[in-house]
Design brief:
Blueprint: E1 7-8, E2 14-15, E3 26-27, H1 32-37, H2 55-73, H3 86-104, H4 115-124, H5 129-156, H6 165-187, H7 192-205, H8 227-252, H9 264-280, E4 297-299, H10 302-305, H11 308-311, H12 316-331, H13 333-336, E5 346-348, H14 357-361, E6 367-371, E7 380-384, H15 394-398, E8 404-405, H16 411-428, E9 433-438, E10 461-466, H17 474-482, E11 487-492, H18 503-511, E12 529-533, H19 539-550, H20 563-586, E13 588-590, E14 598-605, E15 609-614, H21 618-622, E16 633-638, E17 641-647, E18 650-657, E19 668-675, E20 679-688, E21 698-706, E22 711-717, E23 721-725
Parallel strand pairs: 9-10, 9-11, 11-12, 14-22
Antiparallel strand pairs: 1-2, 3-5, 4-13, 5-8, 6-7, 14-19, 15-16, 17-18, 17-20, 20-21, 22-23
Amino acid sequence: MTAPAPTEAAGGQATEPSPPAANEAHVTSPSAEQKRALPVIRDDGERVEPKVRGERVLRVGNRAFQALDALLAKGLPAQLNPLAQTGAIANTSLITAIVTGIVLLIWYRTSVHEAHDSVVAMTQSRFGAGFVRSLHRYSSDATLLFVLIHAVKLFFERRFGGARWLAWVTGLALLGLLWLDGWLGYWLVWDQRAQLVALGSGRVLDTLPIFADPLSRSFLVDDRLNSLLFFVVFFLHMLLPLAMGVALWLHITRLSRSWFLTRRAMTAWVLVSFAAVSLAFPADVVGAAKMAVRPEAFTIDWWYLAPIWLTDRLGGGVLWAIVLGSGAVLFSIPWALARGRARVAAVIEARCNACEKCYHDCPYDAIQMVPRKDDKPFATMASVDPSKCIGCGICAGSCDSAGIGLPWFDSVEQRHRIDELVDKTLGAEADVMLALVCNESAAAHLNVDAVTARSPELPGYRVVRVPCAGWVHPLTVERALRRGARGVLIVASGPGSCMYREGNRWTTERMAGAREPAFRGEKADRERVRVLELYRTQGGRLIGQARAFADSTPPGAAPAPSLARRLVVGVGLAAIFGLVTWAGTAAGYRTPGDPSPKLVVSFKHPGKAGENCREPSQAELDKLPKHMRQKQICERRRASVRLRVEVDGRELTAGAYEPRGVWGDGNSIAIERFTLSPGAHQVKVELGDTMNPAEYNHSTTRELTLKERHNSVVLFDKMTGFVWYE
């Protein structure tokens, strides 16, 4: 028979189900091996989740963010705190960027030869197409800014281990896709910035054996620019947001009631901020890309173009090593830093009465209602998915029958322990105050005696640490009050900083009687219960509030910020984030390297086909059947193409280039660069494509006048022969 929900006993005390017997069925309970391997939450305050490596460093960063949150709370309501909704702001910014990008297609020309002129035309219409383009740029930059803040903030809060690994991994994938989309977007402007983007991309991709021809060869001169490649870049830029949508869905798939977009007020602030920055600092455009001219200095958007500093200075192999190395470090964080795994909640089948409260309250969609397999008079029962559960205990605060919770912090056992604390204190003192404190709140640094539950920082209180404020069931509070406790103080983490997302919200609503299971005002005085949401940095405020509560002082909640203060703080924050976003696009960049002119010689040409014959050795003949033995072994192959370059009668290079292809039967390809002094030079270029290694059967000579930061290019192929670009 299913255990009933708590009822009223004759003596006025609440009754509840006793701890389960040994033969009662447990569903989704952790295994014995898991219990041995994972830390146990003790009365001295060890938390639910396992510790992580480098936790002290992470705590420093977390305290910095919480100090900012506490400071902002003095001037803004929680729903307007940007640090509490960085992910939602990033999503709103991304949608703004996508919409404005689609609108820009009205004016943009998707041709490598017309793209720059169309962007320049947009810029000239400051309040029309130029304004839309500025919105597109700054919303894209803000997206990356808030994604980075979101990632760093959650990293310092240690929200990457256990079941959260999927959100961490997909979040990094989203960051990579977002950056790549912005990188390709700057390519489409086809100005000097785009020139460096294209050259850097070619340097990285040419390291991989995926293109028949080096991508860099397409960017030697303007006349040879690949229009199809430009269209592919445009297509990818438009397609990547779809891939980001898939990754974003995976990112939040393990969350219930995810805060995907900002609410109306914050959305208005975000959009107005973008508009103000766009009007004050219109998006610029630099000179058109000229592949034979090396850019010198200009401003770049460091949010997306910072890797140019690396691509301009490092080779493709080193760049890939950096990308793969940093990726391996970042993606491995959930497993490299976490020590063990958080233990999951468990369902006690005999107690579950299919009320579905835990199913609705779970912040991580880790609880499902499944068909029952026993003879209890309910169609369904709760079931915990261990791959999603992070062991927060919020489900324990939802369950009237104690049918689900944390086996190592059992609700029934803890209620009896609290009863004993109250009874023993009343036997020795006039009254007792009880504090149920979350370890991620301002109570984190309290010194609590494991036996007496006393804390010198909170005199007169008996302090019990709980995994999360959401673990506290109203019945636990009611029992303490009815047994004689003068007041119960619940200390939760600060607004927007709950380690388990919705623990603070559910507890506040339950104690106010607005959510089931609700605190029953007819059973105990609601005025004797106070819920405080305080950041870890607000220890002093906790002590003051606790003392005032113990002295029966009416609740001293901080007054709501005045409208004037909210406007001043809101405008100030919008200005700060707007200036930070703009500043990332206004910093200058200077290209490295010697400004001396360069001579670039490149060819794509097949060597002559021929046979290379030799006499086989006796060992080779012995391996063959007698009827297959030949006097000569001839191999058919292409000749290597030879290149010799002379400048002013001095030989700069003379080398051979093997044919490409799996069978060595493709073109020979070369790109050679030579640094020369400015001025006039006599240049001679010779190629040989025959089987005779001493023969150079293609030759050209020209006098060039070289200028600083200019490339003079000589191209050769079998259709056009030598072509000079000065």
